[in-house]
UniProtKB/TrEMBL annotation:
The lineage of its organism: Bacteria, Bacillati, Actinomycetota, Actinomycetes, Pseudonocardiales. It comes from the Bacteria. CDD domains: MPP_PhoD (cd07389). Residues 40-138 form the Phospholipase D N-terminal domain. Its EC number is 3.1.3.1. Residues 152-477 form the PhoD-like phosphatase metallophosphatase domain. This is Alkaline phosphatase D. Residues 1-29 form the signal peptide. Gene3D superfamilies: PhoD-like phosphatase, Purple acid phosphatase-like, N-terminal. Keywords: Hydrolase, Signal. Coiled coil: none annotated. The keyword Membrane does not apply.
Amino acid sequence: MSVPSRRTILFGGAAAVGLTAFGSAPALASPGKLTDPFTLGVASGDPDHHSVVLWTRLAQNPLADNGFGGMPDRSYLVEWEIATDERFRRTVRRGIEVARPESAHSVHVEAEGLRPGTEYFYRFRTQDHISPAGRTRTAPAPGTLRTDLTMCFASCSHFGAGHFTAYKRLAEDEPGLILHLGDYQYEYASGANDVRKVLGPETRTLENYRLRHAQYKTDPDLQLAHATAPWLVVWDDHETENNWADEVPEQPDPLFLDRRKNAFQAYYENMPLRRTARPRGIDMRLYRRVEWGGLINFHMLDTRQYRDDQACGDGVKAGCDARLEPTRSITGEEQERWLLDGLRRSRARWDVLGQQVFFAQIDLTPGAPQGYNMDAWDGYKANRDRIAEGLGRTRNGVVLTGDVHRHWAAEIKSDYTDPGSRGLGTEFVTTSITSGGDGNDDPNAAVLAENPHVKFHKNRRGYIRTKFTAGELRADYRTLAYVRQAGAEATTAASFVVADCDKSLHQA
């Protein structure tokens, strides 16, 4: 048999390739004979220049109502290995972890001692079962600039709203890194217009959230995207509840903090996150900085856990003076200080904010008066303006955004009333994977006319593919014609280029 290619590993589902590597030693003894426990796939994430997180979760019956994936109430030994080749003939690291029931039998391996800027393959085994293989990579060595990175980012994947074909198309681009900017899963029960049935009630208990994550992870296109490259993940609201703000739920709920605790626990169990993100009750440190050599600093933000409640009752509002209060914050004081300090100290060619909600000002009400979204940075203007100024002092400041189920491209300005004012950075907003359904081709001309710094809009589903080099950033807005049926191809609706030291957008 010929040596399988990377695409064979990833797109052919070649779980059994290279069985002899694990087979050279007897399977570790674990109590209780299992059927295939790797039904949720594998994932990797949070790479640095010498390590990466490897993830899996054991689940014989992933859709079991109790959220335990059909697993017995006992621990299991799980082997893992990393190799530099697809056949696992050149294994460079291996070890053993314990999958415990109190963590829903999830496994988080922080595999260290790896080489910078290197592609690896990994997999797991428990008893005589071997997981699918995944591909990952480490970041380049600190300061390395003579490199490039193809990175895709996505958000808003509602299981019921459509098929996850966009994840498959994203994987086919073979990026070196993937960012997910929130709404990885949705809390709602299945609706009358859903294309696919969502299991269970609206998520509130730990069992609810575990089952919901498991159902999402059974999707083969999502599994493929996870197996293709390491992920950097941050949440938005729907991983817990729509439009929550710190300890304030959308609607009055005396049990909201229990719900938040349950959501955080399940999120950690199901994501390739480092142990520094392990939740402690209702708190979970998710904001962090990931350096990609000297090329990029990724500043991954949390705009839910520390924010003030939305001003003026939430929604798009006109004449809401409360949004202008200087003490209002979407980041919280500590995260703002951390971010501004990181921007000030950065020597990277590109400083990238990976975050959730629209950053640049956008008037969403055609004509007078102006209307702004109180759930976005417009509802926290002073906080936004301070961070925008910090971003403007970097060499190249870029904001990546999800949430709004539309493609947008915008310039971040020092004064939005003056189109010729100083540019502080650029913002790329990705549409949803499925949320909002198929969409349409409405150009949204009225909103674009109100906002000359906004250069592009598209109401189709998809993702954004970027390529970072020392000299420029290119962003391709990838779209699918439909998601309510599976199988749509991806096309590029528009491309924009940002040149080094030029804080403006140019359509390619």
